């Protein structure tokens, strides 16, 4: 732009180096492309295919769910003695009352082992923000980070300032009802091993981390932990620490490895310790077998069947539609200027 | 200084110029200087004393200009302010600051970082753009100019250093640095030529002249002691006015615009001028005209803001729900939730203060649900737009081959606006035209010369050539008579085609600039051999002599270059030179031309003494010179002459014809004429002229004009010239395509009206046959005291009139063009008129505004923009277009030869107008759809995602816990869904660019906003809502509380969240696959890659230490992956979320496909290749509504040709068949031919008439059957009388007339058809025939009856009555009938007539008998009762059958005539009329049938037969419409015969069988009330039916 100083220069004429656009299929937006077309054939095929795939899946899930045998027993009211029914909270909070409760359950159908034992709580907000945050993964993992109790308040330290391990509300409110089972007064072994995720035991909960100052404060939430067993082996705690998504949830308690025959009477001895009465939560004991879809859940199968049959119906409806209102693809008479000759603007 | 220069500098031009060099002298008493008092006139300039202007109050602004939006200090606050004008940004700022407090559900960095990124990116962009502006300003500011330094020395200074009062010296072809007062020039008399193209776009040079008093200041040295003062108006944007006084040596001189040199205009043809700066920098007029460069935002973006408001409201709503829920739960639930230790909570969870907690929670919720309002949207849009802009910049189809300039998107935020443009406002010079004139054709002595064709013609011919095959094909299918006369049809068009193709075929060889003339008859001296050589000689001399140009020898070529005021003039001179009349020298008093009569001869130099020059001005529209030739003869040569003497009109007719042709071809035309003056006449005139010239005062100009007029009379026409104002390459084609795309084009030009109109023709914005509305107010002609007001009223009147005219126009093909001049525009743009003006303008196909100032351009743009609410695009190339470019929604600058101001102010720059087509139709269309779809999708996906968070809240006690991991949420917008949507925004193509260009009509999807209207937006939001619900509840239900794996584990929050999130990722990514229609490998990569990324992320995230990944540790590999239910849930949720959309698009495509769908299909099945006719036909149909552009022009021409052809064809047919002459003259040309609409109307007509007829015939039948209406009751009689009236009127008024006109149609041969009144004759014969049939039929029935019943006993008794009746019947009919009747056996005409006659007789005798009960009458007839019953029924049978015959034959004909009509205009009234007609006829017939007491099946059959005949006729007519020619003799004769026959039948029936029967009946004669009402009904029926004849 050397000549721009010359007085005879015209108006700003920056003879910019003309950036010569280069030809490439990319810059000219001419890349080869597939342009799928939604033809009636494709529409009908798609819906029919969805239907054809979904219905078997739905049937399979339903039958899988059907195979599952489930015994659900709600004991939160049952296990309160008659005289304490009016003040359940006082009963449960009292340290003197006898909280043992024995009931008999009947096996409706043959249950193949292992039979999973769950406790089910209702109206318990394990997913409350305050609750969910109240833990320290670092502390759980290694002894070295024992002091990391960032989000654990108010269960971070004891009143004298020493660290609580495991800290936080989740651990503090650990479920502490216990169940034992017997058939014909023969105790059934409850296997409490391997109820937590393997990875949790191995990597998330340190095998050198031992409970410390746990449930020592003024307020005692739930279960106490054996201070001599490392956290990685406290599987009840590990399961409990996996917070549930909904206020009604089940957690694995243990397994009965043997089969249960139909009409067998199972005597359950429940230590009814856990306070769900304050917030009117239900407590249930669940014995359930599993299939490939897990526990009993008819919803999945029903949903598949519904969507599948709906899609089949749609496929049918579209066939009818295309028969009733056939439109040759690419028929120019459907162009706006042909349909509305008085002006398509 | 070149030695040749000085020669013409000695000239004192002012002596030659008559008008523009009126030099005001010292202010005299009667012409006081402007008082210059009061506000607005305070400026005081000390010339040559710039020092005085360094301090207040005279410290005016410097000449430094700045067009930047920011400076270093203001950048940060202003740019940040700009950024936070976006509502969403404010919201994000709010959430970002909240994220620093404990209420946040997320980490602070994840909120602040994106915001900083988004804002920073946008600000960086702003800064870049502003920097460019700054550099541009710097370049202008640092231009140099020679300035007086004092002591008579001049030195170069930067423009920005010039102060008010500086004396500057500007050299040839330099720009003026400021608004200057011209002091003196290199010409002795102080004139100079100025080019103001940058200011007003005008190309012809303007003459400015200095004051007499400053003339001596013509050298550097003379400024040593120069000092004076100027008092003048304050800075204002008005380019054409200036008021000021120049005070020098105690004398005051008035200044006017003639002495002011405006900044940014250019000095031409003058070596140098001296001037003193009056207005500098931003005070200068051109800068005052500049408007603040606004920051523009596209319509879609504005609408997006609204969507964000909607979403924000929604967000607040759900936040409120959430926080209220939280408050309630905290108050009532929290105390019981011991596991949360409610006693030891912070304020956020305080159960004792639920309101406060609720409030804090509101903040939390606002952040939590923030995913509804995607921050990534802005980043993504920004990225997409930058990429789109890159594609625009890279498009090689928009790169100018010559200059190598590519198109440039200077701001990327208006890309999608390009797809929504409704109106284009275009500059003319430099934009449409390249300001180069080519002499193309001429007409001399009525003979056209020149075979070159203008670009418009070439373009049109190409169009026709491609059209012709199409049209023939198109019409042959429907109208066979095109085929019949295939040769005849083709011929005129072929002629036309061949004629022009010949011109096109010749390779264009423009040898000389400005001269494209090609015709061997004139060049190389061949003209001398032409028959009119003498006239040609005069013609060429006029070209060579009648001008004000200067010839400069060109050293290089040895020839001359011409410096002329206007390019036309230069073109003439070049043409004259090429023809052998070279203008070579001009002196003060003479013009020298070298004439060469043949190439071999040496040129003869001739001198013509110039006596007077009456130069061109826009009012006079002509220029003349008065010369004395070497022989001493005084001649006046005139260009643009329109007033001719009687004997000068020899060639007038031809010349005018040629002028029209040239005009149609888009050429500028001028008529040339001359006149020989007597010495005495001249001297007398010259005296008067000198007197006028020396008149003092403002009358002088008018006086001069008047005097000039007196000599420019009685001119002899020589010929006419046609000069092509060279359009830029491809302009007509581009305008054509844009017009087809439905865009309206306004031309705003500073040029004269004539020029503008010519260009309008050249670009096909105007065409012959378009109705031009010229609005212009000549205020000087208004002799009102209040000129302003009167002018305004006049404008209003013109606008209203024009509006009326437009409204009253019926022809759908009519097009209007509005042409308005600047002065009128001033009034039209005032607040109270502008809406009327606008509504007129939008009804016109094209609008041309001439002589508009830059400010007005901007105002017009604003008016269109705000008045219509549509998107406007302004395109221009000069500084004068900057205002409009900035004002319009989109400004496009042409980076051509002129300055860069327009480009700098523009949003897009292209190097040629023709690239606008691709910019809009391809890129605009794409960008609009891309952005619209992208935004919709964006909202969809964020709603689908964000709402699941909300639903989950309800299950967590509204605590603000999210089911998803923080990382998922962060990644959702950034990684998992961003690239597919960007690829949608960047690469999506609904149709390829070729299709876009082939179907410009597709562009209309943008202006109609099909893809971003609220339906669509809410549809997408609804889809999001549905998806969120489906995903959430499906996931929750599936992962309820049971084990989700065979191992018995239950799903925790991480598992549920992850699986839900998987569903979302799949759903939204599949959704975008359904949305896209164009998949390159990039889209595939992005979409499937995004889904894959999610799984990869899960695996990778799961491998991190659990401290980071928390509960998501090994979630996929350990927990979810092996669980079939996880995959099953994904499949279920994804497909059920996407099915409804699939159903929707399948439905839409099946039932209501959009244009691009159909075209996609055509392309997909390669139908365009296989069926090229269809493809071509659709392309031409797509532009049917276009009114401007040469396609419309060709269409109009084809229409015209068709009409001519139609005439010609029918003529030919007539010659062939009947040899009649003027058949065509009466043939109505169907104005609104529209076969499709006609067909629909016919279908409607069939239905309507069928129903009307059926109802009409059914009423009496059903009524009769059900005895609801007694067929002999009074009401029935009345109704029947009415029907009889109808039938009668039908016969007389409709049928007879129709027959008459058919049979006297000029298409029929004179002999025998017009020798004898066939219509009446046939009618008569038919009536007689009916009588016979009536008689025979009745006899037949009667016999049958008699045989069956009692025998012939009554025959004798009624014989007398029969005879009487016979007489009556005969009397009622024609005498012939009587005679004919006599031959028949009168014996057995019995029945109702007999009764009637008998009763009438008895009635006349014994009127009184009726007063009593009808008993005696009854008794009288009693004897005949039984017999009469039987025989009258027979009559009824016959009557009804004959009536049916008459009516039916008539019905077929009217049906047929409706059916064959192709014009909705004629069908529409016919339908209504025929429905009535049919109803009444049906009623009459139905009455007869019911009286005849047929068996029900027979009656029904007759009724049905009647009801279907007319519809059947219509159907038949429609079927044969294409082949049926209503004007063929056979058809005419058939029609006439049938019509007159049915007329005869109907008249007979009505009079005899209906009227006579009833009115003369016994019931009637005895019932006065019935009589009166029956007569009324009869007249009413007849009247009503007759009235229908007006329409049918």
Automatic annotation (TrEMBL), chain A:
GO terms for cellular component: endoplasmic reticulum; Golgi apparatus; plasma membrane. Its main location: membrane. It is found in: Membrane. The chain crosses the membrane at residues 37-59, 303-324. This is ALA-interacting subunit. Keywords: Membrane, Transmembrane, Transmembrane helix. Residues 1-25 are annotated as: Disordered. Belongs to the CDC50/LEM3 family. It holds the Pfam family CDC50.
Automatic annotation (TrEMBL), chain B:
Mg(2+) binds at residues 427, 429, 877, 881. PROSITE patterns: ATPASE_E1_E2. Residues 903-1153 form the P-type ATPase C-terminal domain. ATP binds at residues 427-429, 569, 616, 639, 668, 749-751, 851, 857, 880-881. It is found in: Membrane. This is Phospholipid-transporting ATPase. Residues 1402-1432 are annotated as: Disordered. It comes from Musa troglodytarum. Its EC number is 7.6.2.1.
């Amino acid at each position: 732009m050397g000549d721009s100083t010359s007085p005879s220069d015209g108006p700003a004429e920056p003879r910019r180096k003309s950036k010569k656009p280069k030809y490439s299929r990319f810059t000219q937006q001419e890349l080869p492309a597939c342009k799928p077309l939604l033809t009636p054939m494709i529409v009908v095929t798609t819906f029919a295919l969805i239907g054809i795939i979904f219905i078997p899946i739905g049937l399979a899930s339903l039958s899988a769910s059907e195979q599952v045998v489930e015994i659900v027993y709600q004991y939160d009211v049952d296990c309160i003695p008659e005289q304490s029914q009016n003040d359940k909270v006082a009963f449960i909070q009292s340290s003197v009352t006898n909280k043992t409760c024995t009931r008999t359950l009947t096996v409706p159908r043959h249950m193949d082992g292992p039979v999973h034992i769950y406790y089910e709580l209702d109206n318990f907000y394990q997913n409350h923000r305050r609750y969910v945050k109240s833990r320290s993964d670092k502390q759980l993992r290694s002894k070295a980070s024992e002091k990391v109790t960032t989000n654990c308040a108010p269960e971070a330290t004891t009143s004298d300032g020493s660290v609580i391990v495991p800290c936080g509300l989740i651990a503090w409110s650990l479920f502490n009802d216990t169940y034992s089972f017997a058939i014909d007064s023969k105790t059934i072994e409850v296997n409490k091993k391997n109820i937590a995720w393997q990875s949790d035991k191995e990597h998330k909960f340190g095998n050198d981390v031992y409970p410390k100052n746990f449930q020592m404060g003024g307020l005692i939430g739930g279960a106490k932990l054996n201070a001599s067993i490392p956290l990685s082996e406290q599987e009840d705690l590990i399961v409990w620490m996996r917070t549930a998504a909904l206020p009604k949830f089940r957690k694995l308690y243990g397994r009965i490895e043997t089969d249960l025959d139909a009409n067998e009477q199972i005597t359950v001895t429940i230590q009814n310790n856990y306070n769900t009465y304050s917030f009117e939560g239900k407590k249930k004991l669940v014995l359930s077998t599993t299939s490939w879809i897990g526990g009993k859940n008819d919803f999945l199968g029903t949903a598949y069947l519904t969507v599948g049959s709906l899609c089949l119906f749609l496929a049918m409806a579209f066939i009818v539609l295309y028969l009733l209102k056939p439109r040759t693809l690419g028929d120019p008479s459907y162009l706006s200027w042909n349909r509305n000759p008085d002006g398509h603007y | 200084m070149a030695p040749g220069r000085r020669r013409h500098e000695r000239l004192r031009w002012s002596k030659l110029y008559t008008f523009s060099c009126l030099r005001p002298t010292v202010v005299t008493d009667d012409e006081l200087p402007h008082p210059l008092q009061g506000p607005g006139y305070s400026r005081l300039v000390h010339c040559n004393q710039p020092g005085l202007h360094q301090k207040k109050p005279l410290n005016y602004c410097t000449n430094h200009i700045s067009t930047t939006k920011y400076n270093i200090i203001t950048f940060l606050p202003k740019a940040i302010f700009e950024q936070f004008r976006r509502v969403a940004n404010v919201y994000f700022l709010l959430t970002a600051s909240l994220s620093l407090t404990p209420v946040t559900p997320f980490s602070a960095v994840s909120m602040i970082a994106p915001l900083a990124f988004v804002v920073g990116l946008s600000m960086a962009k702003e800064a870049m753009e502003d920097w460019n502006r700054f550099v541009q300003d710097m370049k202008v500011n640092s231009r140099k100019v020679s300035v007086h330094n004092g002591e008579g020395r001049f030195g170069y200074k930067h423009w920005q250093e010039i102060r008010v009062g500086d004396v500057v010296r500007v050299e040839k072809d330099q720009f003026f640095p400021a608004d200057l007062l011209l002091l003196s020039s290199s010409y002795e008399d102080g004139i100079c030529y100025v080019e103001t193209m940058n200011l007003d776009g005008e190309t012809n040079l303007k003459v400015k002249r200095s004051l007499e008093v400053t003339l001596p200041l013509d050298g550097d040295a003379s400024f040593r002691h120069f000092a004076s003062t100027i008092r003048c108006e304050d800075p204002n944007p008005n380019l054409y006015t200036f008021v000021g006084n120049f005070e020098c040596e105690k004398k005051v001189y008035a200044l006017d615009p003639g002495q002011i040199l405006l900044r940014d205009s250019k000095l031409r043809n003058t070596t140098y001028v001296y001037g003193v700066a009056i207005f500098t920098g931003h005070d200068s007029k051109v800068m005052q005209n500049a408007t603040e460069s606004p920051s523009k935002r596209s319509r879609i973006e504005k609408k997006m803001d609204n969507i964000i408001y909607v979403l924000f409201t929604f967000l607040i709503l759900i936040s409120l729900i959430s926080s209220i829920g939280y408050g309630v739960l905290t108050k009532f639930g929290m105390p019981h939730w011991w596991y949360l230790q409610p006693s030891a909570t912070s304020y956020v969870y305080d159960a004792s203060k639920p309101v406060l907690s609720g409030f804090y929670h509101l903040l939390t919720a606002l952040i939590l649900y923030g995913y509804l309002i995607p921050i990534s949207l802005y980043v993504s849009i920004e990225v997409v737009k930058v990429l789109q802009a890159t594609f625009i910049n890279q498009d090689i189809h928009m790169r100018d081959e010559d200059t190598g300039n590519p198109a440039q998107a200077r701001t990327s935020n208006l890309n999608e606006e390009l797809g929504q443009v409704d109106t284009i406002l275009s500059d003319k010079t430099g934009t449409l035209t390249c300001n180069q004139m080519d002499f193309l054709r001429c007409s001399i002595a009525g003979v056209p010369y020149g075979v070159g064709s203008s670009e418009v013609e070439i373009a049109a011919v190409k169009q026709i050539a491609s059209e012709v095959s199409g049209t023939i094909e198109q019409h042959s299918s429907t109208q066979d008579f095109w085929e019949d006369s295939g040769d005849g049809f083709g011929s005129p068009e072929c002629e036309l085609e061949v004629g022009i193709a010949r011109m096109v075929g010749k390779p264009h060889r423009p040898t000389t600039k400005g001269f494209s003339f090609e015709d061997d008859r004139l060049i190389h001296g061949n003209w001398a051999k032409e028959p009119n050589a003498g006239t040609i000689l005069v013609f060429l001399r006029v070209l060579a002599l009648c001008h004000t140009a200067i010839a400069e020898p060109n050293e290089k070529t040895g020839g001359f270059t011409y410096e002329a005021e206007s390019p036309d003039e230069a073109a003439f001179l070049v043409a004259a030179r090429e023809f052998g009349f070279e203008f070579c020298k001009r002196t003060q008093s003479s013009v020298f031309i070298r004439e060469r009569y043949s190439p071999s001869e040496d040129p003869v130099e001739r001198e013509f003494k110039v006596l007077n020059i009456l130069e061109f001005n826009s009012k006079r529209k002509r220029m003349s010179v008065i010369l004395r030739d070497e022989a001493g003869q005084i001649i006046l040569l005139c260009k643009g002459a329109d007033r001719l003497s009687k004997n000068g009109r020899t060639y007038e007719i031809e010349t005018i014809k040629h002028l029209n042709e040239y005009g149609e071809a888009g050429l500028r035309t001028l008529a040339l004429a001359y006149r020989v003056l007597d010495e005495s006449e001249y001297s007398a005139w010259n005296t008067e002229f000198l007197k006028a010239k020396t008149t003092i005062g403002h009358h002088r100009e008018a006086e001069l004009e008047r005097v000039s007029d007196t000599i420019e009379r009685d001119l002899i026409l020589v010929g006419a010239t046609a000069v092509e104002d060279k359009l830029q390459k491809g302009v007509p084609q581009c305008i054509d395509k844009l017009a087809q795309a439905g865009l309206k084009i306004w031309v705003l030009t500073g040029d004269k009206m004539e020029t503008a109109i010519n260009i309008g023709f050249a670009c096909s914005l105007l065409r012959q046959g378009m109705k031009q509305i010229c609005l212009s107010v000549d205020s000087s002609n208004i002799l009102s005291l209040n000129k302003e007001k009167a002018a305004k009223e006049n404008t209003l009147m013109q606008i209203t009139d024009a509006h009326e005219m437009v409204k009253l126009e019926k022809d759908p093909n009519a097009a209007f063009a509005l042409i308005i001049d600047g002065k009128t525009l001033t009034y039209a743009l005032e607040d109270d008129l502008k809406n009327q003006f606008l509504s007129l303008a939008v009804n016109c196909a094209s609008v041309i505004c001439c002589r508009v100032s830059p400010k007005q351009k901007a105002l017009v743009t604003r008016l269109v923009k705000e008045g219509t609410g549509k998107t406007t695009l302004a395109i221009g190339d000069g500084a004068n277009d900057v205002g409009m470019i900035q004002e319009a929604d989109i400004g496009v600058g042409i980076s051509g030869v002129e300055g860069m101001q327009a480009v700098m102010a523009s949003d897009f720059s292209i190097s040629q107008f023709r690239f606008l087509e691709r910019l809009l139709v391809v890129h605009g269309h794409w960008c609009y759809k891309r952005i619209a779809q992208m935004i919709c999708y964006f909202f969809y996906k964020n709603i689908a995602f964000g709402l699941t968070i909300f639903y989950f809240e309800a299950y967590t006690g509204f605590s603000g816990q999210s089911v998803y991991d923080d990382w998922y949420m962060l990644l959702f917008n950034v990684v998992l869904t961003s690239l597919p949507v960007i690829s949608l925004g960047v690469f999506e193509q609904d149709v390829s660019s070729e299709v876009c260009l082939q179907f410009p009509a597709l562009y209309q999807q943008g202006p109609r906003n099909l893809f971003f209207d609220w339906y669509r937006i809410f549809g997408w939001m609804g889809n999001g809502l549905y998806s969120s619900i489906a995903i959430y509840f499906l996931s929750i239900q599936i992962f309820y509380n049971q084990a989700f794996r065979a191992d018995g584990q239950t799903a925790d929050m991480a598992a549920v969240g992850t699986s839900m999130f998987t569903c979302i990722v799949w759903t939204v990514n599949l959704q975008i696959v359904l949305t896209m229609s164009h998949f390159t490998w990039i889209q595939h990569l992005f979409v499937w890659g995004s889904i894959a990324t999610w799984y990869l992320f899960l695996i990778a995230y799961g491998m991190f230490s659990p401290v980071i990944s928390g509960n998501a540790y090994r979630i996929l590999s350990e927990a979810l992956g092996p669980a079939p239910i996880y995959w099953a849930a994904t499949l279920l949720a994804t497909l059920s979320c996407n099915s409804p959309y699939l159903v929707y698009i399948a439905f839409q495509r099946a039932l209501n496909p959009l244009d691009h769908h159909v075209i996609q299909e055509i392309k997909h099945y390669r139908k365009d290749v296989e069926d090229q006719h269809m493809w071509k036909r659709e392309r031409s149909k797509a532009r049917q509504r276009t009114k401007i552009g040469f396609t419309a022009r060709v269409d109009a021409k084809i229409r015209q040709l068709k009409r001519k052809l139609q005439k010609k064809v029918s003529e030919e047919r007539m010659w062939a068949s009947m040899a009649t002459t003027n058949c065509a003259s009466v043939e109505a040309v169907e104005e609104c031919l529209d076969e499709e609409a006609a067909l629909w109307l016919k279908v409607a007509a069939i239905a309507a008439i069928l129903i009307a007829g059926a109802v009409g015939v059914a009423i009496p039948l059903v009524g009769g059957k059900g005895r609801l209406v007694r067929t002999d009751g009074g009401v029935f009689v009345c109704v029947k009388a009415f029907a009889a009236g109808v039938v009668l009127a039908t016969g007389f008024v409709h049928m007879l007339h129709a027959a008459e006109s058919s049979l006297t149609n000029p298409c029929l041969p004179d002999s025998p058809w017009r020798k004898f009144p066939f219509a009446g004759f046939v009618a008569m014969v038919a009536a007689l025939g009916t009588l016979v049939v009536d008689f025979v039929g009745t006899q037949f029935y009667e016999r049958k009856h008699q045989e069956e019943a009692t025998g012939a006993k009554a025959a004798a008794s009624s014989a007398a009555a029969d005879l009487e009746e016979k007489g009556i019947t005969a009397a009622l009919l024609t005498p012939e009938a009587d005679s004919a009747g006599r031959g028949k056996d009168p014996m057995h005409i019995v029945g109702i007539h007999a009764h009637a006659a008998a009763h009438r007789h008895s009635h006349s005798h014994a009127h009184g008998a009726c007063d009593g009960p009808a008993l005696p009458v009854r008794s009288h007839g009693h004897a005949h009762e039984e017999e009469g019953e039987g025989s009258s029924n027979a009559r009824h049978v016959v009557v009804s059958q004959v009536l049916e015959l008459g009516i039916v034959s008539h019905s077929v004909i009217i049906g047929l005539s409706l059916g064959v009509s192709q014009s909705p205009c004629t069908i529409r009234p016919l339908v209504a009329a025929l429905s009535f007609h049919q109803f009444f006829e049906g009623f009459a017939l139905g009455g007869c049938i019911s009286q005849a007491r047929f068996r029900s099946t027979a009656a029904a059959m007759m009724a049905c037969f009647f009801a279907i005949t007319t519809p059947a006729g219509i159907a038949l007519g429609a079927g044969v419409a294409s082949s049926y020619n209503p004007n063929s003799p056979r058809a005419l004769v058939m029609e006439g015969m049938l019509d007159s026959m049915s007329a005869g039948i109907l008249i007979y029936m009505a009079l005899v069988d209906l009227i006579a029967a009833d009115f003369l009946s016994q019931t009637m004669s005895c019932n006065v009330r019935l009589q009166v009402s029956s007569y009324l009904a009869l007249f009413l029926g007849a009247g009503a039916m007759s009235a229908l004849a007006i329409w049918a």
